[in-house]
Design goal:
With 437 residues, the chain is α/β, with parallel strands linked by helices. The chain has 2 domains: 122 residues, Urease, subunit C, domain 1, CATH 2.30.40; 298 residues, TIM Barrel (Alpha-Beta Barrel). Helix content is 36%, strand content 25%. It contains 16 helices and 16 strands. The strands form 2 sheets. Strands 5, 6, 7, 8, 9, 10, 11, 12 and 13 form a 9-stranded parallel β-sheet that branches. A 7-stranded mixed β-sheet has the order 3-2-1-4-14-15-16. A hairpin with a 2-residue loop joins β1 and β2. 52% of the residues are buried. The structure holds guanine (GUN) and zinc ion (ZN). Zinc ion (ZN) binds next to β5.
Length: 437
Amino acid sequence: MNKIKVFRSSIFHCIENSGSVIASYFEDGLMLVYDGRIVEVGEYSELIGKIDTDTNITSFKDSLLMPGFIDSHLHYPQYKVIASYGQNLLEWLDKFTFPEEQKFDNKDYASEIGNLFFDELIRNGTTTAMAFCTTHNTSVDTFFTIAKERNLRMAGGKVLMDRNAPVKILDDDNAYVDTKSLIESWHNNGRLSYAITPRFAPTSTKEQLRKLGDLLAQYPNSNDCKGVMMQTHLNENYEEIQWVKELYPEHNNYFDVYDKYKLTGTNSVFAHCIHNSTDEYERIADSGSKVSICPNSNLFLGSGLFQFDQLEVYDIDASLSSDIGGGDSFSMFNVMNQAYKVAKLGGYTLSPIRAFYLTTLAGAKVLNMDDCIGNFEQNKEADFIVLDLKATSLIEQRLSAVKDIEQLLFCLMTLGDDRLVSEVYSLGECIYTKMEA
Ligand code: GUN
Ligand code: ZN
């Protein structure tokens, strides 16, 4: 069987060249995919001669084909927590999030929400994400089972909490053994990766963090196998930071807690980081730890503003994320829109190319997946989305005035949402087509 697939469209992706990010753009482009992987991408006129004349070409008119979005931090059980009114982080957790997460000991409920969650991700053009599940093993099995059924590259893990949360969602003595067996079942199982997931320092005892650091050390990166990831929250909210000081008085700062328990490093992703001290920025950088930036959630919960310039000062690998359900949108267009405004308030202008980088290739780097996704380099997995540049009349009219790819991308990140996403592909197979309005 001939497994070559050919797509013709305007095509955009980000590439990195000795540390600088550039937009690679082909106005009339061609993408060749073989067995789910990228063979080549380039100008139609240059590549058309390389394929047999009878090859079927899928053409997209008035469209932009780009890599699927990568959302480096969100909570799948918070699908129904989204848009919960008027509280700050700690109250919001108690009032809305913890009660909802208690329902995920029920397999049917986990499966119902899991499927809705994946539908919504895909509709918004997100093909990879790293998700928190709940403390229940069943929430994790459900998450990975659905991701596998849908052939998506996903990371996730069981939340770990053994204090300061309702009893129904606190871990029992089996948490360590359960996490280990979930790792054995799901890590590097097809396109799936496991992330050890202590919720945040206030809901874990020191004993739990110590055990998790030891567990993480058992699954390091090696030549033929990627190590287990670690995900948690850091420096999101002033009350949270004060609480950490009280619970861990012997530590210099919040990051120091995770560092002491060996939960930092190149496989560790810290969400938020909006109130980092200088020492914490330095130590995140020195340890090679990664940062997930959550502008929607930080604005929605009134937590604060991320400092984009610090990423560059300290050369920290970071990417954007929705942080559903503290975040109020699954759309990475909306996340880029909010990020641009947060950057502006901090006296920094987030360029559209950087914004799209932060939702594609940078996401892949944060999740240690840049060897297989994030852009259209040869042999990467063909996870891509097709954007309808005439999705709304305003977008169509506004785009008629743009002069280059940067202006086009800026309009998309400012005006765009799920209506832009007309098709979604995983490993070169179409998994979503938008219904005509
Ligand atoms: N910190 C601890 N848990 C959470 C959560 O579920 N969402 C957010 N935004 N922050 C947290
Ligand atoms: Zn979060």
